[in-house]
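Field reference: sequence -> structure
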Amino acid sequence: MEFRVDRRSGVATYLQLVTQVKQALRLGVLEPGDRLPTAREVVAATAINPNTVLKAYRELEREGLVEPRPGAGTFVRRSLSRPEAAADSPLRTALAAWMVRAREAGLDREDITALITAAVEDSFNNSGPLPGPSREDTA
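Structure field:
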């Protein structure tokens, strides 16, 4: 896993790391048993303070997602992935096709991000919960 830090985002660096790990867990990039990069490796790749990395890892530990193993590193405890979000899922394929159409229509990254964010907000603010089992029922 490689971390990317956007110093202009206005989001605290440690939260960017937490978010990236959670995204990797949701997409199945990281799975239980996988080792996260050491603080030293993250610092070398991103030029951030080691305490920032440790703060992010402590937050992930607090949420029960990772566990430190003294002398061995920090390891993933549980996944957040769902089959519907897998790289080969029909939803992911449809979204990739939509992305191609959006780019062909001349939308740039910021346009697409704004459009997706607005659609997500509309969906969750206006429709309420969808029928079927909840995440808690399937976890």
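Note: The radius of gyration is 17 Å.
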